[in-house]
Design a protein that fits this description.
Layout: H1 6-35, H2 57-67, H3 71-76, H4 82-116, H5 123-144, H6 155-180, H7 192-213, H8 249-276, H9 283-305, H10 310-333
Helix pairs in contact: 1-4, 1-6, 1-10, 4-5, 5-6, 6-7, 6-10, 7-8, 7-10, 8-9, 9-10
């Protein structure tokens, strides 16, 4: 892909797979930051000065006093003490620290490889670095939505933040695959089929962020019905076709559930087509994809039944990383390269 030099390819591969896992950890920590309601504990961006945590009691008091000025403390956490504040602070600080680590960990090797390889061969990696920088801005844009008139962040901004994270992860993994797989199989299915599937999965990630952002997983803790019926009884079906549905917790959970079913049936269509046409080279990838779809649906059901309990909800998000990665792998095998 980038060069015929085996050493450079090895270095690139090692770098990309390392970044893949660091970004994966970042997504997990980000999810736990949301699940622990820690995202608003640091009320300033502090791009450079925030690299170090509070080093003395005066620093802790300063951060806590800033937190006391926002609605989340005044309306929701007004009884919080310093020790409780430190717990949510460390989650948010770790999340931001990992963001800085990813930026540095991507920039320095990118500069190094820019001297080793033609710039034109690194355009996709420069795009990833741009997205990493943009992600930092979106992260603050998301946090700022919860500092003035509300006790949490905008679930719309949260969904953008999460979606970009998965796009970054997917692009890193795609570049890693291009370095390490020849993909010379001629017998493939139409590449639009797995592309549509990936689009459905990314859409589900957005809706999942809505569920998380509005704590919609803590209501209607039953399955397959939502309460006494399939459709939530606190709503009308016509509301499902209004834009306001995306700000309604029960409807968002309904959409999230049913999109999972659509994804499951679409997978069965792909599975049937591959085995019907005897595309042997895709058997492994479609089976791996099926495993993670079943796991994700199972964890989603358990998450609902247990009211989005933190450990189960986190496992649900971790599983989504493997699901997206298997989607990218499957899509890669169905992409024709010159």
């Amino acid at each position: 892909m980038y060069t015929a030099n085996h050493k450079i390819n090895y270095q690139l591969s090692l770098w990309l797979i390392s970044m893949f896992w660091i970004v994966s950890i970042m997504i997990v920590v980000g999810g736990l930051t949301r699940l622990t309601d820690s995202g608003l504990s640091i009320t300033k961006w502090q791009l450079f000065s925030g690299f170090l945590p509070p080093l003395n009691q005066d620093d802790w008091i300063s951060y806590f006093n800033l937190y006391k000025q926002i609605p989340e403390f005044k309306l929701q956490n007004y009884n919080m003490n310093m020790q409780e504040f430190k717990i949510i602070f460390w989650w948010e600080w770790a999340h931001r620290f990992l963001g800085r680590l990813i930026g540095i960990g991507f920039l320095i090797p990118l500069i190094y490889f820019s001297f080793k390889i033609r710039i034109s061969k690194l355009y996709s990696l420069y795009l990833i670095f741009f997205l990493i920088c943009f992600q930092g801005f979106i992260g603050w844009y998301m946090v700022s939505s919860g500092l003035v008139d509300r006790v949490d962040v905008s679930h719309f901004r949260l969904s953008i933040h999460l979606l970009i994270a998965f796009i970054i992860l997917s692009l890193i993994f795609w570049n890693y695959l291009k370095l390490n797989l020849s993909n010379n199989t001629t017998n493939k299915i139409n590449p639009l089929i797995p592309l549509v599937f990936l689009t459905l999965v990314f859409t589900q990630i957005v809706i999942g962020a809505f569920v998380s952002g509005m704590d919609a997983g803590k209501i209607y803790n039953s399955w397959p019905n939502m309460g006494a019926a399939y459709f939530p009884d606190d709503n009308e079906f016509v509301n499902l076709f209004k834009l306001s549905a995306f700000s309604d917790p029960s409807l968002v959970q309904f959409i999230h559930r049913n999109l999972a079913y659509i994804i499951g049936f679409y997978y069965l269509f792909m599975f049937y087509k591959i085995y019907k046409d005897k595309i042997f080279d895709l058997y492994k990838s479609i089976n791996v994809l099926g495993f993670f779809i079943l796991l994700q649906i199972f964890l989603g059901i358990i998450t609902v039944l247990y009211g989005a309990q933190i450990y189960i909800a986190s496992m649900h998000q971790i599983s989504s990383i493997f699901l997206v990665s298997s989607c990218i792998y499957f899509l890669f095998l169905n992409t024709r390269f010159n």
